[in-house]
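Subject: for your reference before the review

Hello V.,

The reviewers asked for a structural picture of the protein, and I figured it would be easier to keep everything in one thread rather than splitting it across files. Below is the amino acid sequence we used in the manuscript, unchanged from the supplementary table.
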Amino acid sequence: MIYKTFEEWMKNVKNIDPAMLQMPAQTWDKYLDEYNQYKHELLLTTPREG
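And here is what came back from the structure prediction:
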């Protein structure tokens, strides 16, 4: 499955609702880094259209 937003990824991959969660900035940074890695890998493995 391809997730288009960080929030969607957090809900479906990490089972965390980012709208309801209070976390230290370091924890958000960790999740953002993981999401950015997911997006990078997705770009490398998904054929481009057009």
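For the response letter, the relevant points are probably these. DSSP finds two helices and no strands in the chain. The radius of gyration is 12 Å.

Happy to draft the paragraph if you're swamped.

O.
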